[in-house]
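[Q] Does anyone have a clean structure-token version of this?
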Amino acid sequence: MFTDGYAEKSVELQFAEGLNNADKVCVYAKLPRGFLIPTPVRNYSPDWAIAFYEGTVKPIYSIVTYSMCFF
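[A] Here you go.
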């Protein structure tokens, strides 16, 4: 189940399928709501954890959040 519903092509399901098909991704996980990372500003609750095969990507030290916007 994905937090944005059971829809066959939900945004989170599409994201997971993309990760599943990515050659550089070693493992990924949808994180539970209670998972928090302390930051100087406030606790951050990430949606996903993604690990890449060593040497396939350059490390980036940032937090990325995506949201769906409806205009």
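[Q] Thanks! Anything notable?
[A] The beta strands are 25-30, 48-52.
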